[in-house]
Amino acid sequence: MSLELRDIESHVGFQRYLLRWFKTPFGKQALTLERALLDEHLNTLFGYYLVQMGRVSHASLLATSRIKNHILVDETLTRSEAITERIVLANLMAQPFAASSLDLILLPHTLESTIDPYRFIRYVDELIRADGHLVITGFNPMSCLVLRQRLGRDKSRWRAAHIIKMERLVDWLRLLGYEIIVKEYSSSRCFESKITDKIRPFYRYVHRLGRPFSKLGLSLAQSYIVVAKKQQWVPLQPRKAHQFTEWVSGANPAVAQSRHSSSPSNSKSK
């Protein structure tokens, strides 16, 4: 894939911002709910190489993964930082991986930080092997969290980010031939309050009420996770015309005769 300079430049500024914002009280709550989704679904995926593209948390997001080889690709890492994963310093649109060589790729808010999200998905698709998985987390643009942040002190950061609806992302992946394994929203939090035992049942009740709306793409949850499996396309071998009747039970192949050939009745009369 040939890349121009403008294509190689990526908007990693939003990921750098999230790296700081997730340390704030409200950000910690949001990250806790999002990590619950990651811990649940990364534990069910297998392979040899797992690559996380971009970093939004100082703590590892891959702790529950059963894949042995963890690789973190980032443009701003320094050797002094304590990172448990193997580090690759590279631009997100110019990574040193061979085509069809990775089993699982994690994009934690990476699409929200790139110039062209759909183009980036197509680029990532070339790196995943057949039957490999793509895991994406993102903010729900309809959530009170995003609406609040877009009106707050850091509104320029949030308005510049490419925050995508989950259903739109699912359409992109299906267009590229992916099977959607998981599409799930997190709980919804609008205020900087701790979840105590008294209000925990209330949050669970609100979450249950929002499930029917989530299936219609009308969820107000703050973030989501999508797990997609890359399909291995195997072209079907054409079968001969006389074999098609074998697919229908009880069907007898019809015999077509030429107009110039003699019919059975004419041959008997002669």
From TrEMBL:
Residues 83-136 form the Methyltransferase type domain. This is Methyltransferase type 11 domain-containing protein. Gene3D superfamilies: Vaccinia Virus protein VP39. The lineage of its organism: Bacteria, Pseudomonadati, Pseudomonadota, Gammaproteobacteria, Thiotrichales. One of its GO terms (molecular function) is S-adenosylmethionine-dependent methyltransferase activity.
